[in-house]
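Students often ask what a holo structure prediction actually looks like on paper. The answer is less mysterious than it sounds. You provide the chain, you provide the ligand, and the output is a string of discrete structure tokens encoding the 3D arrangement of the protein together with uridine-diphosphate-N-acetylglucosamine.
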Amino acid sequence: MRILYVVGTRPNFVKTAPVIGALRERDPEGRHAIVHTGQHYDRLMSEVFLEELGVPAPDYMLEVGSGSHAAQTAKTMERLEPVLADERPDLVMVPGDVNSTLAAALTAVKMGIPVAHIESGLRSFDMTMPEEVNRIVADRFSEWLFLHSPEAVTNLEAEGIPGERMHMVGNTMIDTLVALEGRFRAAGAAARLGVEPGSYALVTLHRPALVDGPLLGETVAQLAALAQQRPVVFPVHPRTRKMMEGLEPDAPGLHLIEPLGYLDFLSLLADAGAVLTDSGGIQEETTYLGIPCFTLRDNTERPVTLTSGTNTLLGLDPAAIGRIPGLLTERSEAFRTGAPLQPPPLWDGQAAQRIADVILG
Ligand code: UD1
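The corresponding structure tokens follow.
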């Protein structure tokens, strides 16, 4: 088979790496071409991830970079089209919900090339999120929809997607976590930062709704207040770093650091006392690891992390950060007395093998 994988951002690499690995192993005679759109381009957001995940060097670098949504999407489509014309793959594989995903799915479908979508069927029902638009388009045009949670079936059925296109395979991001577990457990990132395992809150925030407007200043002030009670470690996404210029408070205990490689990030995540995030993937990783997660958003496209996991929706409200210490106390009591949590079905490290089963028959 001739398969072309299109990736562009940090979470894309994590979701696609095990799928590339499984398909290359099961179909060594096939063509497995990797296209990196260049949506993420900083070394810490891109190369470091690919190296740690053992993904071979991309066959094509489109070097699209940053820009408005239209510019980023259009540039990706324009640069991907000749690659698809040359490669003529049997299928184009796209992960997640970023602009690279949308652009690749649209380009392929218009050239009559079948699309496969990893992490299909998630919906926040919030059309102001760019990712929601991207997911809906990618799902609508994909022939193979790879699902990882039960609500995805309901969401896709409601949009009239035929059942035969849906394949419940599990979570490929968790495949990567399982594969790296020995290495990240030994990485000792907390010790290198001088924070005690179990004591600190790990923070990641990058969504436009939070960081591109007036909520960011109040959020930083709330983090500084939280840091008076426990260390706060915040690897700052480049988008957030840009918007935070002039806002950095002088708060001992608040560690504003550069983005981390994946092994160090997972090491910090696994040893955190609590996590505060607006990321999608981190809601899933904390669910698997059993770490209390607080999501600073009004909604989540991953409700399974609320019902089967450790996630709490705080709302898009920086003041809610002040509730975290109290909520942690309530949670630790509930965990002590409640049944142990199980990760959702098929979040077991084997999702990419199931994708290979479906595609290779
Ligand atoms: C993108 C995805 C988001 C995903 C996130 C993961 C879309 C619409 N958004 O958001 O869904 O959760 O990736 O990280 O696709 N920048 C750099 N260096 C980089 C990348 C970005 O400096 O390597 C800065 C630039 O200032 C850029 C800004 O970050 O303008 C935003 O980058 P962009 O790729 O547009 O979106 P993300 O916020 O990274």
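The pocket of uridine-diphosphate-N-acetylglucosamine is lined by residues 9-11, 39-42, 45, 66, 98-99, 130-131, 206, 237-239, 242 (CB under 6 Å).
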